[in-house]
Amino acid sequence: MVYRLLILLVFLLSLEAFAQVRDLFAEFEAETAPASSASLPVDSSKAAPASSASLPADSSKTAPASSNESSFSRRELLGPIKVSKIRGINEIKGSYKNPRKALFFSLVLPGAGQIYVGTSNWNYIRGAFYLAAETALWTSWYYFSVNKYNKQVTRYKSFANEHFSIGQYEQSMHNIYRLLDDASEESLFQQRYLNSRESYCKSIYGTASTNNCYQSKVFENDSRHTDAFRDEPLSKTLKSKSFYDENQFYQLLSNPSYILGWDDVRERASYQELNLSNIDSETIPLAKSIHLEDYKSMRKKANSYASMQAWFFGALIVNHVVSAVDAALFANAHNKLLYEEKLSWIERTRFETSLNIIDNPGVSIHAFWEF
Predict the structure, then answer these.
(1) Helices 67-78, 2-31: crossing angle, 10 deg rounding
(2) Which percentage of the chain shows pLDDT scores above 70?
(3) Cβ atoms 206, 244 nearer than 8 A
(4) Which of 51, 135, 252, 339 is the most buried (most CB within 10 A)?
(5) What pLDDT is stored for residue 276 in this prediction?
(6) Does residue 364 sit in helix, strand or coil?
(7) Half-sphere exposure of 360 (CA within 13 A, CB side)
(8) At what angle do helices 183-193 and 166-178 cross, to 10 degrees?
(9) Which pTM does this prediction carry?
């Protein structure tokens, strides 16, 4: 039993000694180059001449060896020990990537920061992805919000030019207004069916009161305005006249109040059906028109193309921000790798030992692997 304990004790001490020697040489290798390459200069006038004959080896008179000599003798005795291999300054120089610069590059042009960091195919692939997404978003924006939108606007304007008449609209509205009995009916008619009259006249002339198109008492002394527009399609009218704000004018044509100007008007409401004598009565449509519904559908489609640009610009902003943050993070991760130690799996192995000689004599050994 005693011999077994002695063997365990010797084994434990040998493990501890080996660990101390390994740590000692790891520190030594990481500190400086061999002492021989940085030796002090020798003064030849004071140096003793070298003797080819060696003195007798008297252990009692021999001077103690220097710490460097003892270190080298231990290294020569135990052989080279593999320690942590840290990148040298020459290896690191030129490999550092500035995270702020990477962030700025990708913020200006998504993917540029990833290409700047480089060092791996994965960075180049991500950079190409962000750049492709940027190109796709700008291309889609132009195709839908510019090209398709402009074509749709031209389409609904051409449709209105062929099927709407200002002269027909003015004549029909005047005919209804002449049938009104009193001021209350005139006021209610103006409130329900002429509430955008001022904008309508302004879109044509620039000033709503020109030719008495719009005034406090509508349709009074406005013959100069009505005579300027014949009962003809809008396309013929525009050949001799230009409007102050065409976009505003075409927008108003989708309002049901201008339904009497479309060339397919049917089921016109009579004066009695409008029931203007009762202020609490329901607002009755002046007529029905398929062309008006088609025109509203065309404008709705054009507006949907226009609204897409908000989504495209939002996606572009997200692409810039995500690419910039991603480039900065990977630049930082790349720089950390430059200063990490390269350790083998053996060098990452650590041992813990314990010895118990009182209650239950024995020795325990635990091995750990550091990540």
Answers:
(1) 120
(2) 66
(3) yes
(4) 252
(5) 87
(6) strand
(7) 3
(8) 150
(9) 0.61
User: Once rounded to an integer, what is the mean pLDDT over residues 328-335?
Assistant: 88
Nearest to 168 by CA among 315, 330, 272, 286: 286
Phi and psi at residue 352, to the nearest 5° = -125, 130
Q: Which residue has the tokens 């900065």?
A: 328
Give the three-state DSSP class for 363: strand
- At 2, is the pLDDT very low, low, confident or very high (cuts 50, 70, 90)? very low
Section 54-74 average pLDDT: 44
The pair phi, psi for residue 361, each rounded to 5°, is -55, 135
Query: In degrees rounded to 5, what are phi and psi of residue 111?
Result: 100, -25
Reply yes or no on whether the pLDDT at 25 is more than 80: no
The 10s digit of each residue's pLDDT in 291-306 is: 999 999 999 999 999 9
Q: Token match 């709407």: residue?
A: 164
Both tokens assigned to 305: 């193309």
Residue 301 CB contacts under 8 Å (≥ 6 apart), including other chains: 152
Q: Dig out the tokens for 203 from the structure.
A: 């879109």
DSSP tag of 164: B
| pLDDT score of 193 | 93
The token duo for 310 is: 């908000």
Q: Are strands 349-356 and 362-369 parallel, antiparallel or unpaired?
A: antiparallel
φ, ψ of residue 120 to 5 degrees: the values are: -155, 155
- Amino acid 363: pLDDT: 64
Nearest C-alpha neighbor of 166 from the set 104, 129, 211? 211
- Contact between 207 and 299 under an 8 Å Cβ cutoff? The reply is no
How far, in Å, are 184, 186, 188, 192, 316 from residue 279 at the CA level? 9, 11, 7, 11, 52
Interior CA angle at 136 toward 133 and 138, to 5°? 110
Q: What is the pLDDT of residues 240-253, one digit of tens each?
A: 889 999 999 999 99
**What letter would DSSP give residue 269?**
P
209 or 65: which carries more pLDDT confidence? 209
Taking the C-alpha atoms of residue 242 and residue 258, their distance in angstroms, rounded to an integer, is: 20
Long-range interactions of 342-347: CB distance < 8 A, separation 24+: 342/84, 342/85, 342/86, 343/84, 344/82, 345/369, 346/82, 347/82, 347/83, 347/84
